[in-house]
User: Fold this.
Amino acid sequence: MSLPILVVDDSAMARKMLIKSLPPEWDVSIAQAANGIEAMAAYREGKAAVMFLDLNMPEMDGYQVLEALRQEDMNSMVIVVSADIQPIAQERVMAMGAIAFVKKPISFDALNEILKQYGVI
Amino acid sequence: MSLTQINPLTDDQRDALQELTNIAMGQAGSSLAMLLDAFVDLSVPRIRVVEVVELPATLADLVGKNILVSAVRQSFQGYLRGEAIIIFGEPGSHALADLMGYEGDLGESSQAELLLDVANILSGACLGGMMEQIRNFTETHGPADLSFSMPSIMARDVPAAQIIDPKKVQWTHSLLLEVNFTIKDRNFVAHLTMLMPEDGIEKIRGIVDEFIAAI
Assistant:
């Protein structure tokens, strides 16, 4: 069965770039969300074994998603994908339960390295 | 009303430009965070195409109507041409000296100096970040370099609607990109707005179309 992954970003272009950066041989079913509210809905439907999460979004941002996940069962491997390259941003999201941080613009190599490291590919 | 008709950006163009701006702003935010040794909250970029006569109202809308602001302008030219206007909320401009670790009351000229320095860092990092991305996916628009004028103070402690006098602007329309940097517990907000004239809008349109096609 393919692995359900969720790509969360308010920019359709950014979601497209991320999806293009995924390893082509990875057997996944991909869902998308344009903000945190949509992300949490998709998560509750079991569509996010792995979640690629942007931080800066309208409605409900990435930090709020991490907080909401923590209050539920955090049954998702969250990889934060953000243009916010402040070290403190990275520390914060890791402390909130994200397994990794990838900076934008997304690099195929960096993303693959992390996926390998966590044994998801 | 102006006679020139400017087509608005399509949803895809706006989305792509917003993402380019978002990435560029991340670099500017990081530079500011290092300078001020504080965590900087980044906004979601806002993009508008406006008539120049609407600029004062638009800036007031973006920055806030009931506050006094100071503004620094810096023009850029080369691959893109336009004006970067960096707008500081009144408490923020006074909090800067404190954030930079200066003690006591700074004189007006030293305060202005600080605004110029911070403005220069924000516009340089943000536009530099945009150009870096543009270089990565486009080769067809000529060498992707920008040069900047020296930054200068354009307003001190005025309402945002008074920063720009449309009568002194020679463009009819402007593309306006706005991002803002907030340091929450220090009451500091800086808005970076980038304004580009009619031909700039078409240039940006070409760039984002190429970006979209490259994905």
